[in-house]
C-alpha cells in the first residue's frame, strides 16, 4: 500500500543523504520526496511517499526513527490529512486545440503560466487523483514535459461537526 | 584559556576516560599526534588502519568500554571501513577519529581527501564532520554517548586539519542533549507479565540468547532465570558466553552450524524467549519454517530488530538486563504466592535424547590432526579460562562449537560481517585490556594473512597473544561449500602456496611452533601457552575436514547434514 510519511529532521548537512541512503540501502522505494524548512528554525520537514506491505512500512518508520537526525515520523495514513501536489505541464497548443485546453484549465481550476505559439504551460495543484485526471485529459494534445513537486501533507485540524 | 584544536580533542578524550587509542598517523592528524605524548592516553601504533579498528573493537568487546581509533585522512580513513562495518554489524561501541583535509580544500579533490562521512554513513550508528572548532567538545561528548548507549555501535568523527591547528577558548558541555535520540531501556510491565505467563504455561520452552545479553551484561539474570525454571538455553555465535557452556541446561549454538539438539529444540519448542538477538539468516535458516510451533517473546533494545525477519508474539523493546530483571522480580512475586512446579521435565528428557542421538562429534584420527581435537585440547589445557578470538571460516565455527565459553566477553568473533583478518588484531586489543589474561586467536591459514603484519605490533608491545593457525591449506569454509554444493569444484580456494608461518613468526621476533601429528598437539600447545611471548602455533590439520552439523543455506533448521 502507498503511505505518506511526514518526517521532521534536524536541518543539517547530510540529513537528506542519510534518509535517501536508508531507502536505497535497504531496498525500500521512494515514490516522491519533498523537503523544506519548517517554522521552527533548524528543522526541515520531509514528506515521503513510499510503497510497501504492513511489515515493510513498519520497518521503514522504525528505521527512520533510528536515524539520530530524525526527530519525528508520522505515518499520515493513520491520521486524516490534506495532501496536495503541484505540477507544471507543458502541452502542445496549436490554434485548433487552445480553446479546449483552456476549458480543461477552467474546469480543473488551474492556471496558464506560460504561452507560446505552439505550447502552453499549465500550473495545477491538487491531490494525486485530480492531477492524474488532468494529465490524462491533456494527453491527447501531446504533453511535452512535466515537473512535479511531490506530495506535501498536513494533518487536518480537529473538525467541529 | 585558549587552546589548540588538537589539545581540545585530547582534553575531551581525557574527560571521557579514554585510556587507550589505536591508530596510525599521517599528514592530516599530525597536529594531534604532536600533542598526544603530553596526555595520559596510551597510543598503540598498528601496522594497518583496519587492524587499529579491529583492535579497538577487541578491546571494547573484552571490556565493554568504548574503543577509540585515530587515523589520517584519505587512505587512512578508507582503510578503517571494514573495521567499522564489522563493529556496526555486531553493535560494538567505537569512536573513530579520521583526519580530513583543511576546510577550504574540502570538495576540491585535495591530496588525500575522501568523503569518509559519506562513505561510512551506512555503516556507522552516526557520524560527524566537524566544521567549527567551538562545536568539537559537544560533538565528542555526543559521539561517545551515541556509541555506548541504546544499541551500541561505531561513531565516526571527521576532523579537518585546520581545525586541529586553530585556537579557541573551549567550553565543555556537562551533558548531552539530543532531542531526537532517546533510547528506551525500561520494559513495558504488561508485556513482561504476559511473557512470564506464556513461559510458565509452556510445555517446551527455550531460551535463545544473543549478543544483546552480553552488551547489556544481562548474563547473570539470564542464567538465574534459566536455572530457576530449568529451561534449556541456546545462543547465537554472538551470544556464546552469556550462559555457562558447561551447564547441563546448555544446548550449544543454534543455526547453520549449530548443534543437532539446539536446532531440534528450536524446531519443537512451544515458547521461545529470544533475548538480544536479531534473527539473522545464519541463525534461522529458512525463515518461514523457523520455530514452527513456538510463540516468540522477543526482547531487544532496537525496535527495528523486532518483526524485521520473523513474526513475534510478545515484543519487548527494552534493555535486555532491565527486561530480565523485571521478569525475575515478577517471577519472585509469583513464587511467594504459589508454588511453581517443574513442568518441563519431559521436554528436557526429549532434549537429552536428541543430544545422545547426535552429540557434537567428529571422526577422530591418530594420523592427522583434527581441528576439533586442537580446540578440545585448548579447552582442556585452559579450563576455559581464556579470551578466544577467531578469524572467519571453518576455524571460527570449530572454535564456536568445541570450546566451552563459561563467561561473557570470552569469545570475540566477527559474527555479522564475517571479517577474515579480524581475530588477530582483536586479540591484540583484548590483550592490551587484560595484560595478564591468556588471549588466543584461533585462525585459519587464509584469514591470518589478512592482518599478519600486526605481528610487529604484538611483538613491539610485548603482547603474549597466541595465534593458533588451523592450517588446512584451503580457504576451508568456501571449499566446504564447493565440495557440498558445487561439485567439488575447488575454484581458487586451494592455498597451494602458503608461507612458512614459523619463520614468519621468527622474522617478526615472535615464537613459532608447528605440529603435524596428533601426538604433538598437546606438547606444542603447552609450550606456547606457557610462553610470555607472542606465539604463532601452526597446526597442520586434515585438509578437507568439514564443519558439521550443517544446515545448507536456505534450508530449514531441521535439515541438518551430520558427521
Ligand atoms: C575479508 C573476507 N574475504 C572473504 C571472505 C569469504 N570467506 C569466508 S570463510 C573463507 C575462508 C577462510 O579461510 P581460512 O582463513 O583458511 O579459514 P578455514 O575456513 O580454512 O578455517 C572466505 C574466503 C570473508 N569472510 N572475509
Ligand atoms: Mg584454511
How would you describe what is shown here?
Chain A is of the alpha+beta class. Chain A is 30% helix and 42% strand. Chain A is built from four helices and nine strands; from the N terminus they run βαββαββαββαββ. In chain A, strands 5, 6, 7, 8 and 9 form a five-stranded antiparallel sheet that branches. In chain A, strands 2-3-1-4 form a four-stranded antiparallel sheet, with helices on one face. Chain A starts with a strand and ends in a 6-residue tail after the last strand. Chain B is built from 22 helices and 20 strands. In chain B, the strands form four sheets. Chain B has a six-stranded parallel sheet, with helices on both faces. A six-stranded parallel sheet of chain B has the order 11-10-9-12-13-14, with helices on both faces. In chain B, α1 (5-15) packs parallel to α7, α12 (260-268) packs antiparallel against α15 and α16 packs across α17. Chain B is globular, with a radius of gyration of 24 Å. The chains are: A alpha+beta (161), B alpha/beta (563). Chains A and B meet through α1, α2 and β4 of A and loops of B. Thiamine diphosphate is lined by residues 391-395, 418-420, 444-447, 470, 472, 474-478 of chain B. Residues 391-395, 418-420, 444-447, 470, 472, 474-478 of chain B line the site of thiamine diphosphate (TPP).
Amino acid at each position: 500500500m502507498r503511505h505518506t510519511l511526514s518526517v521532521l529532521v534536524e536541518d543539517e548537512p547530510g540529513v537528506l543523504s542519510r534518509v535517501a541512503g536508508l531507502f536505497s540501502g535497504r531496498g525500500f522505494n521512494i515514490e516522491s520526496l519533498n523537503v523544506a524548512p519548517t517554522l521552527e528554525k533548524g528543522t526541515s520537514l520531509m514528506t515521503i511517499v513510499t510503497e510497501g506491505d504492513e511489515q515493510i512500512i513498519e520497518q521503514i518508520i522504525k528505521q527512520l526513527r533510528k536515524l539520530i537526525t530524525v526527530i519525528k515520523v508520522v505515518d499520515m495514513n493513520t491520521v486524516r490529512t490534506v495532501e496536495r501536489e503541484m505540477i507544471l505541464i507543458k502541452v502542445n497548443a496549436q490554434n485548433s486545440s487552445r480553446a479546449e485546453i483552456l476549458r480543461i484549465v477552467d474546469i480543473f481550476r488551474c492556471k496558464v503560466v506560460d504561452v507560446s505559439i505552439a505550447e502552453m504551460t499549465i500550473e495545477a495543484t491538487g491531490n494525486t487523483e485530480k492531477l492524474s485526471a488532468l494529465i490524462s485529459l491533456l494527453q491527447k494534445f501531446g504533453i511535452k514535459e512535466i515537473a512535479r513537486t511531490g506530495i506535501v501533507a498536513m494533518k487536518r485540524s480537529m473538525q467541529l461537526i | 584559556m585558549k587552546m589548540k584544536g588538537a589539545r581540545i580533542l585530547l582534553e575531551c578524550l581525557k574527560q571521557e576516560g579514554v585510556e587507550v587509542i589505536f591508530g596510525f598517523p599521517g599528514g592530516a592528524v599530525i597536529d594531534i599526534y604532536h600533542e598526544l605524548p603530553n596526555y595520559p592516553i596510551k597510543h598503540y601504533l598498528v601496522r594497518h588502519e583496519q587492524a587499529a579498528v579491529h583492535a579497538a573493537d577487541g578491546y571494547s568487546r573484552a571490556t565493554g568500554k568504548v574503543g577509540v581509533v585515530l587515523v589520517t585522512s584519505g587512505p587512512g580513513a578508507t582503510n578503517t571501513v571494514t573495521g567499522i562495518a564489522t563493529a556496526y554489524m555486531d553493535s560494538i561501541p567505537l569512536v573513530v577519529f579520521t583526519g580530513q583535509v583543511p576546510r577550504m580544500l574540502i570538495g576540491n579533490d585535495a591530496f588525500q581527501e575522501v568523503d569518509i562521512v559519506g562513505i561510512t554513513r551506512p555503516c556507522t550508528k552516526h557520524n560527524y564532520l566537524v566544521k567549527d572548532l567551538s562545536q568539537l567538545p559537544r560533538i565528542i561528548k555526543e559521539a561517545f554517548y551515541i556509541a555506548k548507549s541504546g544499541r551500541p555501535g561505531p561513531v565516526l568523527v571527521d576532523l579537518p586539519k585546520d581545525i586541529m591547528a586553530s585556537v579557541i577558548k573551549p567550553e565543555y558541555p556537562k551533558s548531552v542533549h539530543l532531542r531526537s535520540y532517546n533510547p528506551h531501556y525500561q520494559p513495558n510491565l504488561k508485556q513482561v507479565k504476559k511473557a512470564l505467563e506464556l513461559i510458565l504455561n509452556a510445555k517446551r520452552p527455550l531460551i535463545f540468547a544473543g549478543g544483546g545479553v552480553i552488551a547489556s551484561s544481562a548474563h547473570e539474570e539470564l542464567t538465574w532465570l534459566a536455572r530457576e525454571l530449568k529451561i534449556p538455553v541456546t545462543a547465537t555465535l554472538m551470544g556464546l558466553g552469556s550462559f555457562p557452556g558447561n551447564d547441563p541446561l546448555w544446548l550449544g549454538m543454534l543455526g547453520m552450524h549449530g548443534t543437532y539438539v539446539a536446532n531440534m529444540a528450536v524446531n519443537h519448542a512451544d515458547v521461545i524467549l529470544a533475548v538480544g538477538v536479531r534473527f539473522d539468516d545464519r541463525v534461522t535458516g529458512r525463515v518461514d519454517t523457523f520455530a514452527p510451533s513456538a510463540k516468540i517473546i522477543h526482547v531487544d533494545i532496537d525496535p527495528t530488530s523486532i518483526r524485521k525477519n520473523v513474526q513475534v508474539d510478545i515484543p519487548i523493546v527494552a534493555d535486555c538486563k532491565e527486561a530480565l530483571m523485571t521478569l525475575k522480580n515478577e517471577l519472585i512475586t509469583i513464587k511467594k504466592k504459589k508454588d511453581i512446579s517443574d513442568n518441563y521435565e519431559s521436554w528436557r528428557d526429549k532434549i537429552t535424547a536428541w543430544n545422545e542421538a547426535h552429540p557434537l562429534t567428529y571422526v577422530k584420527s591418530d594420523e592427522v590432526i583434527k581441528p576439533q581435537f586442537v580446540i578440545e585440547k585448548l579447552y582442556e589445557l585452559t579450563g576455559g579460562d581464556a579470551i578466544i578470538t577467531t578469524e572467519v571460516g571453518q576455524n571460527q565455527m570449530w572454535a564456536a562449537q568445541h570450546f566451552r565459553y563459561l563467561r561473557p566477553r570470552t569469545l570475540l568473533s566477527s559474527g555479522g560481517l564475517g571479517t577474515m583478518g579480524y581475530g588477530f588484531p582483536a586479540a591484540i586489543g583484548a590483550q592490551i585490556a587484560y595484560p595478564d589474561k591468556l588471549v588466543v586467536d584461533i585462525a585459519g591459514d587464509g584469514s591470518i594473512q589478512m592482518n599478519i603484519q600486526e605481528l610487529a605490533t604484538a611483538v613491539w608491545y610485548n603482547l603474549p597473544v597466541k595465534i593458533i593457525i588451523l592450517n588446512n591449506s584451503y580457504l576451508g569454509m568456501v571449499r566446504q561449500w564447493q565440495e557440498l554444493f558445487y561439485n567439488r569444484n575447488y575454484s581458487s580456494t586451494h592455498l597451494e602456496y602458503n608461507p612458512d608461518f614459523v619463520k614468519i613468526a621468527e622474522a617478526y621476533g615472535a615464537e613459532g611452533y608447528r605440529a603435524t601429528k596428533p601426538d604433538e598437539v598437546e606438547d606444542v600447545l603447552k609450550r606456547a601457552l606457557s610462553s610470555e611471548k607472542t606465539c604463532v602455533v601452526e597446526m597442520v590439520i586434515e585438509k578437507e575436514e568439514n564443519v558439521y552439523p550443517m544446515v545448507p543455506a536456505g534450508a530449514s533448521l531441521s535439515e541438518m547434514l551430520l558427521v
